[in-house]
Amino acid sequence: MRRYLAATFSALAIRDYRRYAFGQSVSVSGTWMQKLAQAWLVLELTDSAVLLGVAVAVQQLPTLLFTTLAGALADRFPKRRILLWTAVGGMVPAVALGILAYLDVVTIWIVLAAAFAQGLADAVDKPARLTFVNDIATPATLTNAVTLNGIIQNSGKVAGPAIAGMLIAGVGISAAFFINAASYLPVIVALLLIRPHAPIHRGAFTTKGHLVDTLRYVSARPQLAAALVLMTVSGIIAFNWNVLVPTLTRDSFGGDARAVGFAFTSMGVGAVLGGLALAGVLRGTSLWLVMNGCVMGLALALTGAAPNLAVAYVLLFVVGACSVTFRVTATTLLQLYSDPGVRGRVISLLVLATNGTTPLGGPLIGWICGAASPRVSCAVGGLGTIATALGCWLYLKRTGSLGAAAERAAEGVLPGSKRPGSG
Fold it and tell me: How much is the pTM?
C-alpha cells in the first residue's frame, strides 16, 4: 500500500510542483463555478440550448484562432511569465460579469463579450500550463505529474459547480463570478515562488510557418497523428460538457441549477477518484489511449439512456473518471513522443483539438439537443468516439506503431527526432 501511494503521488515530492498543484487546485474550483454560472445565466437570459452552445463556442474561438501561436510562445518564452499574465487576464472578465450581474444590467451580448475575453486568456494559458510540468518535474515523475495535473484540472468539478448551484439559488449569480476572480490569487502567489529548472529554447520567434511545420512533424509520427485525430473528433462531438450537461439535466430530467451543479460534481468526483486510482499505473501509450476512448464513449452513450437523474449521476461519475484518464493519456503521450523544442506547439494542437473545436462542436451539440434531444447528443458523442478510437487502432496496427517498441518509447526511451523546420 505504501509503495502504491508513493507511486500515485510521486510528483508531489517536488517542492515547486506542490506549490503549483496547490495554486491550480484552488483556481479550478473557481473556474468551474464560473462555467456553471455562465451557462445558467445564458439559459435564464435566452432559454436557448443553441445560444448556450454559441456562448461556449465564442469562449473557445480564441483557442481556435490563436492557440498554435500560443504554443510557439510557450516554446520561446518563459512559461512562468506567460502563466502570470494569463492569470491576471482571467480575473478581468470574471470581475466584470460579477459587477454587471449584481447590478442586474447584464445582457447576452455582455456575456458573449466576457466569454471571448476569458477565452483569449485561456488560449494563451493552456499550452504553457500543460507543458509547464516539464519545467518543474523530473523525467522519472513526468507521467505522474501530468496525471496529477489532469486530476487537479478536473477536481474543480467536485466542489465548484455544487457551490455555484447553491449560491445561485440562495445568494445570487454574481457571487460565483467574484469568487472565481479571487481564486486566481493563489495561482499568482505560487508562480512567484516557483523556480523552474528546465532551460528555455532560445531562437528567433516567428508567427509564420509554425503551424505547417508542426503539422508536418506530427504527420510523420503515427502515434502523434492518431492521438490528435481521436482527440479532435471527441472534442467536437463529446467534450462539450458545458452545453450537454446543463441541457441534459434541465430538459431531460427537469433539474434546476442545483441539479446541474451536482451533475458536474458527479463528473468531478469520478475524475478525481478515477485519476487517483490509475495515477500510479497510467501509461502514455497509444493502446491505453484507444482503450480509454472506447470506455469513455460507452459511458457517455449509456448516460443518454439513463432512466432518471439518479442513474444519470452515477453514469456521469463514470464519464468523469474515463474522460480524465482519456485526456491525461493523450497529454502524456504527446509530450513523451515530442522533441522538447517543439513540445509546446504539439500540445497546442491538443488544445486546439479538445477546446478549439468548440466553435464547431458547441453549436452542433446545442442544435442536436434542441432539434432531437440531449439523449441523442450523448449517443452521437459516445458512439462516434468509439468508432474513431477503433479506426485509430487499425491505423496504428497497420503502421506497426503498437507493440513493445512503442511501449518502450512511452516509458521515455525515445528515438532521435528532428524539430519542425530542421530538415
Answer: 0.71
